[in-house]
Structure formats: C-alpha cells, structure tokens
Design goal:
- The complex is a heterodimer of chains A (224) and B (832).
- Chain A is an alpha/beta fold.
- Chain A is 37% helix and 25% strand.
- Chain A has seven helices and ten strands.
- In chain A, the strands form two sheets. A six-stranded mixed β-sheet of chain A has the order 6-7-8-3-9-10. Chain A has a four-stranded antiparallel β-sheet with strand order 2-1-4-5, covered by helices on one side.
- The longest helix of chain A is centred in the C-terminal third of the chain and has 18 residues.
- Chain B is 56% helix and 16% strand.
- Chain B contains 23 helices and 22 strands.
- In chain B, strands 1, 3, 4, 5, 6, 7, 8, 9, 11 and 12 form a ten-stranded mixed β-sheet that branches. In chain B, strands 13, 14, 15, 16, 17, 18, 19, 20, 21 and 22 form a ten-stranded mixed β-sheet that branches.
- The relative contact order of chain B is 0.12.
- The chains are: A alpha/beta (224), B alpha+beta (832).
- Magnesium ion binds next to α1 of chain A.
C-alpha cells in the first residue's frame, strides 16, 4: 500500500475571476510508508498548494488522491477530518500552536481529539516532549517560548499520535541555521521513533539533500 | 472534549476576561430590566385594582342618580320589580368633623348593618350586637382611644355619637376613616330623611335590573370606575414600560450578539487549526452554542438580581404615586415568584443561544487550515452593505405602513397598541439596519493630513468604514438607545406639556370649590344649591360660576353632560377649540376631543342626548381640547342643561373669581369659616390643582428615567466591548503605525477618534429614530388609542444633551480598550 498516491492533481485558485491562477497543473506523485520526500522549487511554484492537498486541508479541482490507503474523492468533511485526525501530522513554518493551551495541552490535543484515555494521553505527550527536549516547559504558554522551542512543540504535536504521514511546510524556514539544523536532527529522530513518512517543503538545499528523495516543482509541475 | 473546551472557550475567555464581564453585564442588565418591568407592571396592576376596591368596595355595580342623590322609594320599587333575593345595598354618606384639639374629618356611611360588613373592615363588637341599632349608635374606626361617646359636627350641628363597636381596617380598608351606622339612623343624623346617595349591587347583576334602573331614570355602572385621567396615565405608563423593556432586551441581545460575533472572528483561526487537527465542525458549533447558552444563563442569574433591585425601587416609586392618588398605602413589593426567576433565566439563555447561533452556523462551514486567519486582509475598497441597506429600507417602509394602519385603526386599544408597537419595532430595527451604510460612507470623508488630530481622525474614519462589519452592531445599539431616550422623552414631554397647558388654560378662576364627599370617585359629590348664592353675597367675590354635571350613557358609552357658562369661560381662554366655533344658539353644544374621536362626530352634526325629560336634541358647534376624561364630555350652556334636567340644582363645582388684587389664601380662609358644613368642602387654588396634577404625572413617569439610563449604559457597554475586540483585531495595523512613527499618544487618539465617530454616527441616526418614534407615539398612538391630541413638544435641550453627552460617554467607555492598545509595540504580533 502506498502512503500517498496522487494522479493528475489540478488546483486552480480564484476560479472564474480575473485573478484565476493554475497553481498545480496535472501533478502525479507517490510516496511509500516511512519515506522522507523533500519538495523544492521557486517561490510561487505551488509547493504549499500541493502540501495542503496532501494534508487534506484543501481539495483538488481535478485528479485522484489517495492518502494512507484511503481514496479521498467524494469523502465528506467529517470523514476527511477523521482521516486527518488519525493518520496525519502537521508541521508549519509559523508553528501555529494554539495560544489558549499550554505546551502540554497543545501536544496532547491530537490524542484528546482521538478520545485516548486521560492518563494514557498524558503519558504519551510527556514522552514525546521528552523526545524533543522540552520536558521542563510543559506548563508554559507558546507565546513565552522561543521560535526553536515553539517548533519543537509543534513537532511533538505532529508526531504524538504516531501518524502515518507528517506534512511539513518549511519547518525550519523561520529558524536560524543552527536551530534549524537541530530541529532537523530531531525530526529525523522523532520520525524514526514514530515510524512516520514525511513530506517536506524546503528552500534549504542541505535539508533537501538529507531526504530520501527530492522533487522539484516549477510552475505547478514536477521537473523531470 | 475537555481539551477542546479549554482550547476554544475557557482559554479564550481567560485571555480576555473583560470581554466576558462586559457580555455578562450586558445580558444581566438587559434581562434585569425586562424582569423589573414585568414585576413593576404587575405591582402597578395590583395597585390599581386595590385602588378600585378601595374607592368602590368589592367589584359589583352602583346605581345612582345622574346627578345628586336619589329617593329611597326608588330603591323599594327596584327591589319589588326584581326578585326579592337581589342584593341591593342602599347607602347614604355625609361628612363629620370631630370636636376637640385636633379635629379629624370622617365620613359617616349609613348602610344596612344586616348585610355583610367585611368590605368595610373587621368589626370588633364592644357589647350587645342589638346595640348597633340603638339611637346614635355607630361603629367607630379603631384609633387607640376607648371613649364610649364621641362629639362631632355634621354641617353646623353638634352630635353625640355612641360607639358600640370598633372597625378595624382590613386589607382593602377605605381611603378616609369611615364611621358606619345603620342607614335609617344615618339619614336622621345627617337630616336627609328618605334620601340615598347610591345603591350598591353586590355580586352578579340580576336579570332585568339594568332595564328597571333605566326606566327609573337612574344610572347603572360598574363599581370602581376610576378618575379617567389617572386611568389614562396608568395605561400610558404601562405602555411606556413595555416599550422600554423591549428596547433594553433588544439592546442586551445586540450586545451579546456583538460580543459573541466578535469573539468568533477572533477565534476563527483557532477553530480552523482545531478542525485541521481533527476536531469536527459539529463539535465546534455545539461548543459555541453551549458557550452562548452558558453566558446567557449566567447573565440571566445576575439579571434576576438586577431585576429584583430595580423592581423594588420601582415599587417604592409606585407606592408613593398610589398613596398620592388614593390616600392609602400602595402595593407591597410584588413577591418574586419561582416562575419569574425561571422565565428570566430561560429568556436570557435563549438570548445567548440566539446570539451564538450565527457564529455556530458559520463554524459549520469553517475550512480546516493551519495558516493564519487572524488578520484576513481587508478588501480595498470595502464592499458596500447592500443587503443591510435594502433590509433597512424595507423595514422603514413597513414601519410607515403599519403606522398608517395604526392611525386608521380607530379606538380598538389592544389592536392599536399592538400595531403601534410593531411599527415602533420596525422603525427601530430599520434605522439600526442603516448603521453599516452610515459607517461605510465614512470612507468618502477626506480630512487634511496636516494636523495630527485630523490625520488620526481620517485614519479612524477609514478604519471604521473598512471594518463596518465589526462596528455596525455597536453603532446599532447606540442608535437604539439614543432613539429610545429621545423618542420616549419627547413623548413624555409632549404629554406633560399638554397636561400643564391644559391645566393652565382651564383653571383660570381664583378658587375652585367642590365637595369632599366621594372625592376621587367617578360619581363624585355635589354641592348644596344654596352655596352659590351664599358665596356670591360674600365681600370680595366678583363672580361665582357653577358647573352642573350629569353622568349618563350615550351610544353604549359613558358620557358627562356639563352645564356651564361657556361664554365666560371661553373669554378667559378656557375653551381651546380644535375645530368649529363656540355655541351661538341655545341648541348648540361643544364636545370634547375624546368623544369626538370615539364616536367620529363632526361639527354641525345633530345629536339626540338622553335627558330627564326624554331626549334633548342639540347640534355640535365645535370640538374642545380636554384631558380630564377619556370618556368624553359634552359642554352646554346652563339654559340648555336645565332644559334637559330641570330638577338637578346641585352644582358639581364652583369657580370663584375674586375682586382684583384680592389674596386667594385669605379669601379662602374667610369663605370656609363663613360657610356651613365647610369640612365637607374642598377649596383649591388653580396652582394647587395644577401642582397636584403635575406631581402625580411626574411620579408616574419617574421610573422611565432610570430605564432610559440603563438603556444608555447597555449601549455604552456594547461600544466598549466592540471597541476592545476591534482594536485587538487591528493590532497588526497598530504595530505598523508604531513602526511608521506613531507615538503611543497617537494610538490612544486614534482609538478615541474611532469611538467618537462611532457614537456620533449612532447618535445622529438615533436622533432621527427618536423623532420618528416620538411622532409615532404622539401623533398616531395617543389620538388612536386614547383619543387625545398632544401638541408635539420638541426638546432641543434634551437633543443637544444626548448629542453632546453620548459621544463623550462613548469616549470614556473606550478609554479602557484604548489605553490597552497604546502599548501595542510587540513586534511578535506581526510575525508572518
Ligand atoms: N488562496 C489563494 N488565492 C489565489 N491564489 C493563490 C492562493 N494561494 C496561492 N495562490 C497562488 O498560487 C500560486 C502558488 O502558491 P503557493 O503558496 O503554493 O506557492 P509556494 O510554492 O508555496 O511559494 P513559497 O515558496 O513562496 O511559499 C502562487 O502564485 C499564489 O499566488
Ligand atoms: Mg509556500
């Protein structure tokens, strides 16, 4: 079973308006379980657009997409939500932690949403925080953390429920080179720990080089 | 679920506790005012019912002569003609004054002592029950003195009364202390053998009695008809209260709606993130609804406290009014019942749910996203609020349509009230719906960029126009509140103005003399025929004018026929004509406005009035303005009156004009000293009468001030809350301003300018609404429902005050949020 299988994905922004833009143009691509795939490309080439499709937070205008063995065409919002909740982890350039929850609350949120029992969720969240080296910050609020720390919290949140696939959009983009490198090491370790595959957009050639496979997107198409 | 609640609800409110407090305060004030009005108007109702029973005994009917007293043989005839079991209670009354240091006025009431006496009080017998019928035996009101005999004056005669029982006041005890005795003995003591003042009919009306009464030339009417003007005020008061409570509930809902709507906007990205992480939309929407319900419920509980506080102070005001009207203790504080509490909390909860319904509905279509939605880019230029403007326009059209219906709907009060209330609601919501347009229009303003204040003002106007969605509800709340204050204020002022003017015009003699007997009741009292001549012969008196009245039924409605010196009164300006002219020929009469409207009369119309001599044919020559009766009166010259009622020689009242330069006070003292039976007379100066009328008026309407103040407070709370959330949403922009060189003071000024502009817009539209509401109340509702025409009294002072004070208060209300954003320099806020 393939982790991701995309055939002929098309995504057109602002359809029917003067600003209509074909961000993705017939993209074919697939991923194996546990695989690390990097996507590079110039700004505005459609990398984030593709990522949103795979992360199931956006729908393609045409094409077929299978994620974690589940064909997504025609799925209801509720079904997509369940799929995201159970099989996907999200990592973002701007972290996007919930300001209303503390570090522990943020990390265990995916488990709480899955209905994992309280003690079990707490244990797994703490273990994950230990893995990213934040076991001492459990009760601080995201706004009080540094960028690197916030990204590590986001990483713990993305992996705490051992998702089949982590979708990451420039996870090191907001961090300095040194912190970025450390976060990257962590990502690699954590993924090994959770056994997830990862689809990562990056501008950093170093990061791209570390991936199992690197794809280049130009003007909404993969370069061969 | 717990984490979800924390992420979405509790965590959020922990971050903005002021917003939560404001929302709760808004709901609490809104529901509290509604509850208070409910409780207060129940007390009013109870008070007036109690008043009726006080004046006329328990519900039943009264048979009386159209004027003066009646012969007791008529009573026997009625008794014979109907069945023997018919509970007819004859009654005769007279005035007594105790002798001694501290003379006290009492009413001697002669009734059939064999009838149940519980309506008069509790009887505590001092000896043998048969003593009740002994000569000069009376039941004396309990006054703490144990004297067996009391010396009193009746007219100019001294009497020695024997107290055989005590009368303890019961819950519905009489107004004036009353001495009871057997009817035959009372007639002897008062020297009125064979005469009765009225006959009470207890319980249900026997068949055929009405017909018998009519044939005997007597009048049958329900007991306890109150003085019409007071009745009127009570109704106007209740109407005013319900309108005000409606507005405050609307304001409370608007505030909740605003705050929950704003908080939804601010939490959109949190929701999108939670949804992206796997929480279903349904769960999010349910949470929002539950949150609204919880806020409504807690606000409702607080509102019960507010309501109880308001209602108890209201009841005190009503108490004072009632004791002024009826000379008895007013209503006790109306107990708060469990169902009131439940109803208040349920309504507030419902209001919270309604307010949360829109955000919840929108949450059902939120897109999952991890990207930042916190500050969606404003579209440039912002869209025009077509939908709202069109809605407002349609609502305003509907309002003018319904007001036309109300104006044309005649005298069906319930229906007119309903239509007029609907029209007022449409007018208010239509004007409020124009708030987005008014805000959007601000984008067209151009200000100079030279002066720092003007620059900031221009930026603030622009931001209001761009963010009209954010500010519209607060502006709408201000429109409603200021409109209500102006509308109600103008209505009350027009009402008061015309009452004062009417009192001024129609009370231009120097002294007014009437009988104390039956004061305040519709049947009233009459004066002895000799008194007129007696006064006219006194020194220092220039003229005495007697007014004779007959109260009767005409076209199924009560009407008063009054014989007076129309010419003389008109010369003094006491006959303000709305239409037509003064009577010239001896068959012409004037009708009052209420009668004119109720029966749709016209000048020149021929009327057949009931008369002792059969009927009296007259012609309407004009319509006179009058606020004394909403039933209507017909004014005619003395000769016309006596043609119809030759035998009615007891005047209802005398208007006395003194020689020029005479002092009314000393003339009154001299007159009362010289008149026989003066303790049964009331003599008032026009100033006293006017003062009394206006005092009752002011006390009746005092409560509306408190409610107006609360309405304004709720609107200002709304402004502060929407300002706080709008500024929080604009944080990025504010930080950019700081980077561009704005000082902290500039930001403060910017926020204050926003608040000022929003309040000024709201108040200007509110002024228009207020004028519309006042027109509706004064020109449509009053004539249609009450048969009264009120001259529209504009209140420039009040308008100016509202226009000045409200924006100033708006600035004050936004000081809190404005000071909070002054420090918006955190660069983290503008992280991509
Ligand atoms: N919501 C949107 N509406 C309209 N156009 C959009 C939208 N989102 C993206 N686009 C357009 O689609 C194209 C691809 O955008 P995308 O965000 O995928 O680029 P990207 O490769 O991620 O660029 P970057 O490296 O700068 O993040 C861009 O030209 C962008 O303008
Ligand atoms: Mg991108």
């Amino acid at each position: 079973m393939r982790l991701v299988d995309a055939r002929g994905l098309v995504r057109i922004h602002g359809r029917g308006t003067a600003a209509e833009h074909r961000a993705l143009d017939c993209v074919d691509f697939s991923m194996e379980p546990g695989e690390w795939v990097a996507i590079v490309g110039p700004s505005g080439s459609g990398k984030s657009t593709l990522l949103h499709l795979v992360a199931l937070t956006d729908r393609p205008d045409a094409g077929a997409l299978t994620v974690a063995g589940q064909p997504t065409y025609g799925l209801s919002d509720a079904a997509l939500t369940r799929l995201r909740r159970d099989r996907l982890g999200h990592l973002h350039q701007a972290f996007h932690l919930l300001p209303t929850l503390d570090v522990l609350g943020n990390v265990r949120l995916p488990l709480d949403l899955q209905g994992v029992p309280d003690r079990e969720a707490e244990r797994r969240a703490r273990a994950m925080l230990e893995e990213v080296g934040l076991e001492r910050e459990t009760h601080r609020h995201p706004a009080a953390l540094s960028g690197g720390q916030q990204q590590r919290v986001a990483l713990a949140r993305a992996l705490v429920h051992a998702p089949a696939l982590v979708v990451a959009d420039e996870p090191t983009g907001n961090l300095d080179r040194e912190t970025g490198r450390r976060v990257l090491t962590l990502i690699r370790r954590a993924i090994a720990f959770a056994g997830s595959g990862i689809l990562m957009v990056t501008h950093d050639p170093e990061v791209a080089a570390a991936a199992d496979r690197c794809l280049t997107l130009v003007d909404g198409r993969f370069e061969t | 679920m717990r984490r979800l609640i924390e992420a979405l609800v509790t965590g959020w409110w922990k971050r903005s506790p002021w917003g939560l407090l404001l929302t709760l305060a808004g709901v609490a004030l809104g529901s509290g005012v509604a509850l208070a009005v409910h409780l207060a108007s129940r007390s009013v109702h109870e008070a007036f019912l109690a008043g009726i029973e006080t004046l006329a005994g328990p519900p039943g009917h009264i048979i009386r002569a159209p004027a003066g007293d009646l012969d007791e043989r008529l009573m026997l005839r009625l008794q014979r003609a109907t069945s023997a079991t018919t509970p007819l209670v004859p009654l005769v009354e007279g005035e007594l004054r105790t002798l001694g240091e501290d003379p006290q006025d009492l009413t001697l009431t002669g009734i059939d002592l064999a009838c149940p006496l519980d309506a008069w009080g509790e009887v505590k017998s001092l000896g043998d029950p048969d003593d009740l019928f002994a000569p000069a035996a009376v039941l004396w009101p309990e006054d703490g003195r144990a004297d067996k005999f009391r010396r009193v004056m009746a007219g100019s005669r001294h009497l020695n009364l024997r107290v055989v029982a005590r009368l303890l006041p019961s819950g519905r005890g009489p107004v004036q202390p009353r001495v009871l005795c057997d009817i035959a003995e009372a007639q002897r003591l008062l020297e009125r053998p064979g005469r009765l003042d009225r006959i009470l009919v207890r319980g249900a009306l026997p068949n055929g009695l009405a017909e018998q009464v009519r044939q005997a030339g007597l009048v049958l009417e329900p007991a306890g008809s109150r003085a019409a003007v007071l009745d009127q005020m009570a109704r106007a008061f209740r109407f005013n209260l319900s309108a005000l409570s409606l507005v405050s509930v609307l304001l409370g809902t608007a505030l909740t709606l605003n705050l929950l709507g704003r908080s939804f906007g601010a939490r959109r990205s949190t929701m999108a993130r939670i949804h992206a992480l796997g929480a279903s939309r349904r769960a999010i929407a349910t949470l929002l609804l539950a949150e609204g319900a919880a806020i409504g419920c807690v606000g409702g509980v607080l509102g019960v406290g507010v309501g109880v506080f308001l209602a108890s102070s209201t009841t005190q005001a009503i108490r004072r009014t009632v004791s002024a009207l009826y000379g008895r203790t007013g209503p006790a504080w109306s107990q708060l019942e469990t169902q009131d509490v439940f109803l208040a909390i349920a309504c507030a909860t419902l209001c919270g749910c309604v307010a949360a319904a829109v955000p919840a509905w929108r949450a059902l279509s939120i897109a999952p996203s991890l990207t930042d939605l916190e500050h969606p880019p404003e579209r440039q230029p912002p869209p025009w609020p077509h939908g709202w403007t069109l809605t407002g326009f349609i609502l305003l059209l509907a309002a003018s349509g319904t007001s036309a219906i109300a104006a044309a709907s005649g005298t069906d009060r319930t229906w007119t009230n309903l239509v007029a209330l609907a029209s007022a609601t449409l007018l208010a919501s239509g004007t409020a719906a124009m708030a987005p347009l008014a805000l959007r229009l601000m984008a067209l303003t151009r200000t100079s960029r030279q002066h720092p204040w003007l620059l900031v003002l221009g930026l603030a106007a622009r931001s209001l126009a761009l963010g009209w969605r954010r500010h519209a509800l607060a502006v709408a709340a201000i429109i409603l509140a200021s409109g209500m204050v102006l509308g109600m204020g103008t209505m009350v002022a027009s009402f008061r103005g015309s009452v004062a003017q009417w009192a001024q015009r129609t009370l231009s003699a120097d002294l007014f003399l009437s009988s104390r007997q039956g004061e305040g009741t519709r049947e009233g009292g009459t004066l002895s025929p000799a008194i007129e001549g007696h006064i006219a012969s006194m020194p220092g008196i220039r003229a005495v004018e007697a007014t004779y009245e007959v109260r009767t039924q005409w076209r199924q409605r009560p009407v008063t026929l009054a014989g007076m010196l129309i010419r003389a009164r008109a010369e003094r300006g006491e006959m303000p004509l709305l239409e037509g002219r003064l009577p010239r020929s001896p068959d012409e009469v004037l009708v009052t406005e209420a009668l004119w409207r109720h029966h749709r009369l016209e000048t020149g119309m021929h009327l057949d009035l009931p008369a002792a001599t059969g009927s009296l044919g007259v012609t309407v020559s004009g319509v006179v303005q009058d606020y004394a009766s909403d039933q209507g009166q017909i004014f005619m010259a003395h000769e016309v009156f006596f043609r119809a009622y030759p035998g009615w020689l007891r005047p209802r009242s005398l208007a006395i004009t003194l020689d020029t330069g005479a002092d009314a006070g000393s003339a009154r003292r001299a007159m009362l000293r010289a008149l026989p039976g003066a303790n049964a007379l009331v003599c008032r100066t026009p100033g006293e009468l006017r003062g009394e009328v206006l005092r009752i008026f002011d006390e009746t309407f005092a409560l509306t001030r408190a409610i107006e103040a609360i309405g304004l407070l709720v609107a200002l709370l709304g402004l502060a809350s929407s300002q706080a959330s709008a500024l929080a949403e604009e944080r990025t922009l504010l930080v950019q301003f700081r980077w561009l060189g704005f000082s902290a003071g500039d930001l403060l000024r910017y926020a204050l300018c926003q608040a000022w502009l929003a309040t000024v817009t709201g108040t200007l539209l509110g002024t228009l609404l207020g004028l519309g509401l006042a027109r509706l109340l004064v020109d449509v509702l009053n004539p249609a429902a009450f048969g009264w025409h009120l001259p529209f009294t504009l209140q420039p002072l009040r308008m100016a005050l509202v226009l000045l004070i409200l924006p100033a208060a708006g600035i004050l209300a936004s000081l809190g949020p404005a000071r909070a954003i002054r420090k918006a320099t955190d660069p983290g806020v503008v992280r991509p």
